[in-house]
Amino acid sequence: MKSTIDQQSGVFPSVCSLDCPDQCGLLIHKESGKIVKIEGDPNHPVTQGAICNKVRHMTERIYDEKRLRYPLKRVGKKGDNQFERITWEEAIQTITSNWKSVIASEGAEAILPYSFYGNMGRIGTEGMGRRLFNRMGASRLIYSICEAAGTEGYGYTMGGSYGTDPEDTVHAKLFIMWGINAVSTNMHQVTIAEKARKNGAKIIVIDVHNNRTARWADWFIPILPGTDSALALGMMHILFDEGLVDEAFLQQYTTGYEKLREHVKQYSPEVVSSITGVPVEDILKLARMYGEITPAFIRIGNGPQHHDNGGMTIRTIACLPALTGQWLQQGGGAIKGNGGYLSLNKRALERPDLLKTSTRKINMNLLGQALLELDPPIRSLYVYNSNPAVVAPHANKVRDGMQREDLFTVVHDLFLTETASYADIVLPATSSFENMDLYSSYWHHYLQIQKPVIEPYEECKSNVDVFRLLAQAMGFDEQPFLDTDEDMIGQALDNPNNPPVQEITVQALMDHEFVKAKVKPLFPGKLRTPSGKIELYSEAMERKGYPPLPTYTSLVEDESLPFLFVPTANHNFLNSTFGNNEKHVKLEKTPKLHMNIADASRLGIDNGDAVRAFNERGSCELTAAVGEDVLPGVVLSQGLWSDAAKGKALVNSLTPDRVADMGEGATFFSGRVQVEKVNS
Ligand SMILES: Nc1nc2c(c(=O)[nH]1)N[C@H]1C(S)=C(S)[C@@H](COP(=O)(O)OP(=O)(O)OC[C@H]3O[C@@H](n4cnc5c(=O)[nH]c(N)nc54)[C@H](O)[C@@H]3O)O[C@H]1N2
Ligand SMILES: Nc1nc2c(c(=O)[nH]1)N[C@H]1C(S)=C(S)[C@@H](COP(=O)(O)OP(=O)(O)OC[C@H]3O[C@@H](n4cnc5c(=O)[nH]c(N)nc54)[C@H](O)[C@@H]3O)O[C@H]1N2
Ligand code: SF4
Ligand SMILES: [Mo]
Questions:
Q1: Which UniProt keywords apply (predicted)?
Q2: Which of 183, 368, 532, 675 has CB 3.0 to 4.6 Å from 212, enough for a Cys bridge?
Q3: Domains annotated on the chain, with CATH
């Protein structure tokens, strides 16, 4: 392959590496060996040349003064950010000699890798690192911080992460954006909906916040947090009651619809209104629109599933398209996540066979607890592709754990993140434009290989390269550690359980900017549920002790404090990424706490006041945004602000480290707080 690196100037196709469903095609403009501009690739069939503001300003992040250039070792106290330059040899030697002595004295389970999708490249996230830690016999991480609860819930109904092809949704006549702030988090779904709108489509947003997406809608339905399953059940009640269901579809493609018909009788509009805060006439109107307009498409977001009851809620919403037979309409149905369609050969990528004996699994949502309370203890933490000191729930507990003097921490990142400030050794990472990887979207059906566009910045190394060095220094010389990047990509694509991906070759991805997997439509067909049908009644759930029919379950009683605190994503950052980049911080202005005017006036809080939200887990200072953007009893913030930008705005200091009803998922949005004015 002729490397684009060798060409000093030109325009090169690329792909966005961030954890975002759109996975945009990019064009990288290069002059004299440096990136000068990043824009959307107009040839990409889904993203069509449009990209978000975040990535349009990505160049500044790549060449940011603050970017890590070489390995560092800590010379001050943990958290104090005092480091000294060391060589790669010293870094690798220090890490592996620590690991060897930990393994000799306490066993490899005392080592915990912690990572997520700061870069979505599959070999950098799921490849060499998993191989190394499997071979070592380290503790294994449960990757549950994002969509685990909803994925399990959706899976009971639909048999896996399979939904509508987003390109088809241009034909929809009704869009329900359900707990997704798509204008900020899935912008091309919005672009497609806009096209459909020109053909008469209506857009409904169901959310707890009158945000950018709500303001874009034809109809915004505010709902109380954590009550969405009740609303969906109320819609089902009306659909059955008014004969708006597709009996033929129910009979042919679902299990348990007669039981469901009886079951939803209890969810009358009056009952549902008292749970959700949605007026009876709006529940009726919503159900009738959904029953009468076709094709109808539901885009299910992270909002409803980052709650204690998130799994059951998503399982319940996922039943709706079956009632009206929407899965047979082009563009109808739902998307929660489409990752199943592009699933890769996980075994080949991660090589679980290298693990000799089964090792303990540690839920990433309980990192603080794991570092402070686990017995036998964790002695070494290796973090990459993630910033848990900011993004993980109960962040103060996480930081207390990282503060432990006897914990040896390594952080591999592009920046000296809040997490890195607790590290003993910091390793500099390449950006996605500096190394090769395979990208597959969890929304559309395209795969793409990122060929390196520029040379690695200073002494930066990719995840895969660092893991290779570590494996070598550990004395692991098996083939999996010798595979090249291209070998690994080939192995990942070769998935016998997923023919549409298996037929895509490395060569095809090298030759074309992107390739669409030839995904078969879900219907007519057999799902991957036990019955092969949409399971309105699920025996699998029953066996696990869940109600077998979709059900409203309430949030767990948190501390008895007056407000439910919903700390969501914001427009100009991506999780904590960009929270340390000046341009993005400036665009986002200041971290706010949205509250209802009725609550604010009772507490003597005016718009623009400095306020403190607190509970027994921590405290967080924000600027009050008073109005009617949230219902009374709810306070909401946007963005995972970095310490550097606003010292006290660590929203995750308040979030619970309880796990959700399914998937051991996160419950970021189910914590309660008190709020008070900060007197300056
Ligand atoms: N700009 C930007 N884009 C991103 C990200 C980012 O941080 N910034 N993050 C990326 C990642 S990793 C992910 S997982 C996705 C997440 O993207 P989204 O799915 O949009 O997730 P959130 O923004 O967490 O929450 C979605 C919406 O749910 C609402 N909400 C909260 N609780 C409830 C509830 O109980 N019911 C209802 N109906 N709504 C509720 C919130 O107000 C919010 O508008 O976005 C990705 N894209
Ligand atoms: N309160 C609250 N908390 C949340 C959420 C929320 O909505 N509210 N959302 C949750 C969700 S959905 C998610 S997915 C998580 C996301 O949490 P994380 O996965 O931790 O996401 P980021 O904060 O973007 O951190 C990614 C880090 O990876 C680094 N990185 C990027 N590329 C590379 C690379 O190639 N190699 C290495 N070694 N590092 C790299 C980046 O510089 C960045 O510091 O946060 C969760 N936390
Ligand atoms: S963050 Fe999302 S919208 Fe922005 S360029 Fe990347 S994939 Fe596209
Ligand atoms: Mo996420």
A1: Iron, Iron-sulfur, Metal-binding, Molybdenum, Oxidoreductase
A2: 183
A3: 72-142+343-430+457-488 (3.40.50.740), 164-336 (3.40.228.10), 563-677 (2.40.40.20)
